[in-house]
Amino acid sequence: MQNTIQQEATLEQAIELGLRAEEFENIKEILGRTPNFTETAVYSVMWSEHCSYKNSILWLKKLPKDGPHMLVKAGEENAGIVDIGDGLGCVFKIESHNHPSALEPYQGAATGVGGINRDIFTMGARPIAQLNSLRFGNIESDRTKWLVRGVVKGIGDYGNAFGIPIVGGEVFFDESFNTNPLVNAFSAGIIDTKKIISATAKGPGNPVFIVGSSTGKDGIAGAAFASKDITEDSANDLPSVQVGDPFMEKLLLEATMELAETDAIVGMQDMGAAGITCSTCEMSAAGNVGMEINLDKVPTRQENMLPYEILLSESQERMLVVVHKGKEDVVKKIFDKWDLNAEEIGFVTDTGRIRYYMHGELVGDVPAESLVLGGGAPQNEREYKEPAYYQEFKSFSIDSIPVPTNIKEIAYRLIQRPNIASKKWIFEQYDSMVGTRNMSTNKPSDAGIVHVKGTDKALAMTVDCNSRYVHADPEVGTMIAVAEAARNITCSGGIPSAVTNCLNFGNPYNPESYWQFVGAIKGMSTACIKFNTPVTGGNVSFYNQTVANGIEIPVFPTPTIGMIGIVPSQKNVMSLNFKQKGDLIFVIGNCTNDISSSEYLVSHHGVKSSPAPYFNLDEEYEVHQIITQLIKINAINAAHDISDGGLFVTLAEMSFQNELGFDIESDSEVRIDAFLFGEGQGRVVVTLNEEKEENFIETMIASGVNFTLIGHVTKGKLQIDGEHFGFIKEVKNLYENALGKYLDN
Fold first, then answer.
1. Residue 621: is it exposed, middle or buried by C-beta count within 10 angstroms (0-12/13-18/19+)?
2. 8-state DSSP, 614
3. Do 315 and 301 contact (CB within 8 A), yes or no?
4. Number of CB atoms found within 10 A of residue 442's CB
5. Which of the 8 DSSP states describes residue 390?
6. Alpha carbon distance 413, 420 (integer Å)
């Protein structure tokens, strides 16, 4: 290497870039010399938490990865793939864009949507549906309202322009997210299983192309920025937020789909976190090869960009493509047609090293394997310990809470809580119908349902996690997140297939935050094994916290579960809405005397210290099996799981579409507040007409699963234990307009 290119980097520079002193020493040992500034910058992003998973990989390896439908497992490619039959696969993944969204919510959220869709179509799959999981702080604060407006508009503007329907999602508000919101974006696509594009570089001498947009200074060191705390000074990092262009992404999608039909591609990878650095290193390491890259050939938006700026830029809508030698013109013609850059910037070598040149001068020389996840990147074991609050939460007793007498008043207030009320204000800004695949817009189900064209199948997909449950008990709370995702898919007529996750936690160097992370991994593993839903990959997002006056304030731990299910026949798609007056209403599963961690307990009684709600994994699994059987034999006409807000909210949500009501009797063995508002898990409300009652009861008795007839569907009146609770129209009005009143105030 030419030592005159750049001076050796200093320890102070390395620390400023986010490396630790011991990591800088490790880099010197790997290289056999002190790295220069450019090389140090490369290691800083590749060894950042966001890219290397250095503080999580040892636990992530414990998650189950094998299942009956797996085509591409976790860690093998940009996203996981499950086999859905008929020669087709479903590519899906979820990722976070939390830190950028905290500083610039519009572009932070928009580029999160763009990035997750590129992960899908880079593999040769056409995206067909999107979901999102969002967390915000106190809805009455001006900052939260600003964040909500920016994030929602960013998701809507980018997703709508790109042309992929948003078919579902979730939104949760809590003060722990006041400074650090969570923006988790999910995308799924369909692929011909014979045309999967790998993110692997092969064949020394094969040319390397950068395609798509030009490279600018937006997003420089964004991966490192995402791997540190949000503080009062974080606004100074605003240049780390990327800027997206959905129309450019649409062109890139179509060009990629056209390129995928040729025999020109060796491998391809999205330039997401760490930009050119990440894609060159990861593709080379995957193929046990190297690359020589000419940075001066990279199309740039600004003049005189420095080598490290080009390498670390996270400008959007770009991909790296390794092409079979002799097929260069194929690539150029396709991208010229779509008016996109397609520049040859280097070639594959057999050295195992990445050599970066600028105007003929060597500015960086690093071994690819030393930089990547599972290779030479650090793999740390972190200390963890149980926080004091955990035992305090477990000591909660329902007997400390008086049984209320104003049940109707509570029910009406609960239906208007931000975490319960309709998210209509949000989802009406999204295009849910573009592409003609969404089957759940006018036929609401617990999961988003998307038609698989050319077949009778459909895909069911959902994102789920109750952050409050996970905070109360990380292991149980995460098992509940997996179980609820599976329950939503099951209630929609699907068979749960596989999971992707977005693990949002605080500082991994804080033993109590790391204890939450470890508990979540344990709970996820247990539940995924039970439901036979392997983890195909996802994203870890640490440092979701605020540091003020030297004190760390982490967000509620949020291991968001994205789950895919297969609906074998579209005739089995099950909706959640009441169908007709007189239908019988049953609850399947055990009703327990439990109000722990419920929205009712927190919002009405102000009690924030309680354990996760009742949960039994075996009982949950049996409920799922019988729901699947009931749908298959056409024994029910609606199914909706009981979750946030409890039974009353579930029944109200079933009432809204057709404005039908309910007349029910409570369970004398449990308190009325636990019966109506408790969030004990493993329960589903189903309805059926009287002609099917005998078959239903025989099937339920044979299954051994508890079930209870609680009442019947009415024309619109609400009645509980003989007391008139009003009419569904007035409840619906409160439910649909509450969130808008908060946000527009």
1. middle
2. P
3. yes
4. 9
5. H
6. 10
Residues in the chain with pLDDT values less than 70? 1-6, 219, 221-242, 432-442
- Angle at alpha carbon of residue 269, lines to 324 and 82, rounded to 5°: 105
Q: Give the whole-angstrom CA distance, residue 202 versus residue 454.
A: 34
pLDDT (0 to 100) of residue 643: 96
Of 69, 97, 99, 451, catalytic: 97
What does the pLDDT read at residue 1?
A: 37
3-class SS of residue 551:
strand
Cβ atoms within 10 Å of 607's Cβ, excluding its own: 17
CA-based nearest residue to 337, from 265, 254, 262: 254
d(CA 458, CA 451): 5
Q: For 17-129, where are the alpha helices, taking DSSP H only?
A: 21-31, 37-46, 49-52, 57-60, 98-103, 105-121
User: What is the distance between the alpha carbons of residues 12 and 20, in angstroms, rounded to a whole number?
Assistant: 10
Distance CA 464, CA 170 (A): 7
pTM of the model: 0.94
What residue ranges define each of the domains in the chain, with the CATH number in brackets?
Answer: 1-65+198-379 (3.90.650.10), 69-196+460-570 (3.30.1330.10), 389-430+576-745 (3.90.650.10)
Q: Which helix (H) or strand (E) holds 719?
A: strand 717-720
CA 413, distance to chain mean position in Å, is 30
Check if 97 is active-site. Answer: yes
322: β partners: 208, 267
- Torsion, CA 709, CA 710, CA 715, CA 719, rounded to 10: 160
Q: Say how many Å lie between the first and final Cα of the chain, rounded.
A: 62
- 573-595 tens-digit pLDDT: 999 999 999 999 999 999 999 99
User: If you count DSSP H runs as helices and E runs as strands, how many of each does the chain have, helices first?
Assistant: 25, 27
Is there a contact between 62 and 521 (Cβ–Cβ < 8 Å)?
A: yes
Question: What are the tens digits of pLDDT across the range 602-645?
Answer: 999 999 999 999 999 999 999 999 999 999 999 999 999 999 99
Q: Which SS3 state, helix, strand or coil, does residue 634 take?
A: coil
What the block records as the tokens of 669 is 């063995």
Q: Give the span between the Cα atoms of 255 and 650, in whole angstroms.
A: 45
- In this structure, the dihedral spanned by the alpha carbons of residues 709, 713, 714 and 717, taken in order and rounded to 10 degrees, is 80
Assign 3-class secondary structure to 308-377. HHHHHCCCCCEEEEEECCCCHHHHHHHHHHCCCEEEEEEEEECCCEEEEEECCEEEEEEEHHHHCCCCCC
Q: Which residue has the tokens 């594959």?
A: 348
Query: Coil, strand, or helix at residue 692?
Result: helix
What is the side-by-side strand order in the sheet with 707-714? 638-641, 684-688, 584-588, 707-714, 661-664, 717-720, 723-727
Amino acid at 228: K
The vertex-325 CA angle with 320 and 329, nearest 5°, equals 75
- Token couple for 596: 């722990």
Q: Do residues 419 and 173 make contact, with C-beta atoms less than 8 angstroms apart?
A: yes
User: Quick one: which of 271, 100, 275 has its CA closest to 184?
Assistant: 100
Pairing type for strands 126-136 and 166-173 reads parallel
Q: What token pair was written down for 73?
A: 């497992």
In the block, tokens 């579209």 appear at 570
- Answer whether 461's CB lies under 8 Å from 448's CB: yes
- Give the single-character DSSP code of 548: E
